[in-house]
Amino acid sequence: MKKLTTIFIVTIVAIVLSACSNDQAGASEITITLEINDLTSETVISDEELQVVENTTVLSILEEHHDVEVQDGGLLTAIDGYERDTTKNIHWLYEVNGEMVSVGANEYQVKDNDHITFDLQKLD
Predict the structure, then answer these.
(1) What's the domain of life for this entry (predicted)?
(2) Number of domains within the chain
(3) E strand residue ranges, the chain
């Protein structure tokens, strides 16, 4: 009986440890495209296809792959040294699949085949 109890406990511990080793258990990887442009100087900063975990936020992906500066509240101020300039009305805007998004990059959760575009541009 003692041997059976030991085997049972070892099995349970192994199951728990294997579940803990994968923080994203059950989450699937998807493919997205991330494009970053400085339209004020017509510079393509980055254009890459990435494998990411589904439902990850756009901001998390940016922070993982680029040098990003964000103000309190999630306002994006710089990507890879390209900074917004409020005195010249130059700001970062982003779109998903060609459409403006109504939530911040810290809230939008990516879906398979999303094409995400960040543009640094002068607003009129």
Answers:
(1) Bacteria
(2) 1
(3) 29-38, 43-53, 68-70, 76-79, 82-83, 90-96, 99-100, 115-122
